[in-house]
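Possible regression after last week's pipeline update?

I re-ran a chain I had predicted before the update to compare outputs. Posting the input and the new output here so someone can diff against the archived version. Not blocking, just want to make sure nothing changed silently.
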Amino acid sequence: MTPEAHEFLTKRCKVMRRLIRVHGPCTLVSEKAHTPFQALVRAVAHQQLNGTAAETILRRFRALFPGKKFPSASDLAAVSDEALRGAGFSWAKIASLRDIAAKTLDGTIPTLRAIRKMKDEEIIERLVQVRGVGRWTVEMMLIFKLGRPDVFPADDFGIRDGFRIAYGLDEMPKPKEILTHAERWRPHGTTAAWYFWQADNAARKKKAIKGVTA
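New output (post-update):
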């Protein structure tokens, strides 16, 4: 988190001020080395799986292309469905991978150089055209791969629950309700989102500890 984001959120919102005091400075770091093609392949691998299982599948996937750290879209287009299935991808995910390769080759999925010049909503609009890729997946890419500072994934369960906890609500808020509040955190929505994730994680850990000691 930049000093500007810290100062802005502290002055702008008393709830954010409390979350910053409780959870300390934002430690979010993006991995900017991945191309959009690589990021989307990785995102599909991680869908509905824990991190360990997804990384195992990705390791087998990369092993299909000896001598390369990561295959190109052309490489992926040329490999068989059976080989991808053997790496651990479901048939639905294989269909998504095929579309990612095709849309990279036809330019729908931009290059890293091109995407850096695009606005967030423009990127979302372009990438949700890919099979199996929704708005949430693209927002995660914007945050964790491209390091965009003003992304607020209101549909994310962790953020919604963190918001509920931070604001002392009895019921889970709807995304539209959260987005109304999110206007006050712009242009530092990503940092605000990180603090709601921290609130959710802290509550989960506290619950887990109570469960062990009960």
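Follow-up from reviewer: compared with the archived run. The mean pLDDT is 91. Marking as no regression found.
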